[in-house]
């Protein structure tokens, strides 16, 4: 018992000293016998809200056609494990009386439990089942949770990642495909260089590194022109979505140099490669015919072997990579999606992991889509994304599997925007 403990807290010790002059016996009284005392410690506002809720629930039960029938039957005879007490309909589940929620109030109850902490389906179900009974509860929770805007934008995609490895064709010769990217920012040199512009030949893995002061398209184009003067233009340039590679100037440069078409140059006799550039280089006279023929023959044999090795490695890479992947969802033009946040500013770890809603406007390749922003929220107006960086924006309700109830989503989007603003402020 409390009074026999060796270490008593100060308040209990004072009680012990005060009660020493009395003869008394301490008896334990269970909590279910102390309801009249509990009422004195309850917040009267909370009690008023609870009473108002019960009145609302009772009225809703009376107006629910299905529950009204059950109530009328219970007045005549028992029906399954339903119980009607004090104007409220309950369902007895293993000795626990749960309030039966009419259809009109189901969404309100589920949302209240879920939004208390934006819990998972399992946790939300546990919370609801503590006090309430709703038929087909789990499916109804799944539908509501899948359309919760803060959850759509904040949660990672579950299960295996989508999308299998689709190797890029390396061609059968060098200098056909370039991979380009920037490294940095690094420590600035005395001349102001703090980035490295890297150009990698996809076939040979040969690398060219150029120091740059910025990552803008002007410097990129200047270095590609330097490369062009020696090796000519590639057939394809592969880059990320960096501003330097999506600018109008870079697109104009590619169009002028015909980066996406095939052309031939006499300099192939020297390099064994079609050097593609706007001018026709006259290099036939540089090498004797006999040397050229032998050079081409030996080089072609080496390249065929290199191509075979590359294909073997790609097949093995695909096999290993695809073990932990699954097929990507296929999106149609008009689908609403959320896209993964790829740029994080300082102190932004608590921001939603996805942005949206966006609408799919075009499919540009294998598992790649163009999307446009819907509404006024964070994120680029138009961009491209891959299927593994996207997920459906809410549950599919329509016959075509793409109607997500725009009015409800728009309302929840505004709530998510307010939450995002709050996170940034904090």
Automatic annotation (TrEMBL):
GO terms for molecular function: nucleic acid binding; RNA-directed DNA polymerase activity. InterPro entries: Integrase_cat-core, Integrase_H2C2, Retrovirus_Pol_polyprotein, RNaseH-like_sf, RNaseH_sf. Keywords: Coiled coil. PROSITE patterns: INTEGRASE (PS50994). GO terms for biological process: DNA integration. Residues 374-405 are annotated as: Disordered. Residues 292-319 form a coiled coil. Its EC number is 2.7.7.49. Residues 170-342 form the Integrase catalytic domain. Transmembrane segments: none annotated. This is RNA-directed DNA polymerase. It comes from Tenebrio molitor (Yellow mealworm beetle).
């Amino acid at each position: 018992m409390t009074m026999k403990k060796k270490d008593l807290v100060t308040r209990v010790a004072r009680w012990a000293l005060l009660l020493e002059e009395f003869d008394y016996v301490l008896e334990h009284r269970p909590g279910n016998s102390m309801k009249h005392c509990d009422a004195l410690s309850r917040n009267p506002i909370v009690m008023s809200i609870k009473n108002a809720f019960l009145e609302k629930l009772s009225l809703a039960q009376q107006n629910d056609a299905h529950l009204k029938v059950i109530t009328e039957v219970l007045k005549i005879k028992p029906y399954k494990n339903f119980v009607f007490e004090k104007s409220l309909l309950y369902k007895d589940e293993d000795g626990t009386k749960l309030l039966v929620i009419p259809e009109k109030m189901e969404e309100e109850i589920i949302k209240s439990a879920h939004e208390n902490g934006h819990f998972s389906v399992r946790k939300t179900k546990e919370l609801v089942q503590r006090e309430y009974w709703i038929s087909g509860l789990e499916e109804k929770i799944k539908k509501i949770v899948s359309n919760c805007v803060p959850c759509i934008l904040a949660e990672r995609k579950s299960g295996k990642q989508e999308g299998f490895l689709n190797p890029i064709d390396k061609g059968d010769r060098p200098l056909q495909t370039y991979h380009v990217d920037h490294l940095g920012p690094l420590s600035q040199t005395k001349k102001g260089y703090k980035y490295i512009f890297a150009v990698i030949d996809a076939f040979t893995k040969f690398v060219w590194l150029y120091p740059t002061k910025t990552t803008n398209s002007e410097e990129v184009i200047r270095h590609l022109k330097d490369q062009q003067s020696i090796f000519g233009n590639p057939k394809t340039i592969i880059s990320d979505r960096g501003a330097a590679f999506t600018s109008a100037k870079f697109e104009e440069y590619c169009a002028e140099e015909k980066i996406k078409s095939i052309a031939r140059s006499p300099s192939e006799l020297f390099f064994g490669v079609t050097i593609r550039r706007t001018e026709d280089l006259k290099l036939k006279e540089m090498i004797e015919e006999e040397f050229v023929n032998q050079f081409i023959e030996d080089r072609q044999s080496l390249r065929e072997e290199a191509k075979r090795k590359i294909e073997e490695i790609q097949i093995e890479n695909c096999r290993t990579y695809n073990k932990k992947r699954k097929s990507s969802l296929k999106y149609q033009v008009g689908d609403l999606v959320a896209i993964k946040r790829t740029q994080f500013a300082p102190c932004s770890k608590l921001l939603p992991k996805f942005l949206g809603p966006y609408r799919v406007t075009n499919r540009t390749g294998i598992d790649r889509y163009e999307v446009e922003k819907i509404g006024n929220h964070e994120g680029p107006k138009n961009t491209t994304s891959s299927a593994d960086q996207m997920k459906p924006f809410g549950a599919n309700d329509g016959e075509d599997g793409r109607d997500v109830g725009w009015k409800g989503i728009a309302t929840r989007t505004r709530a998510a925007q307010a939450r995002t603003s709050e996170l940034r402020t904090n």
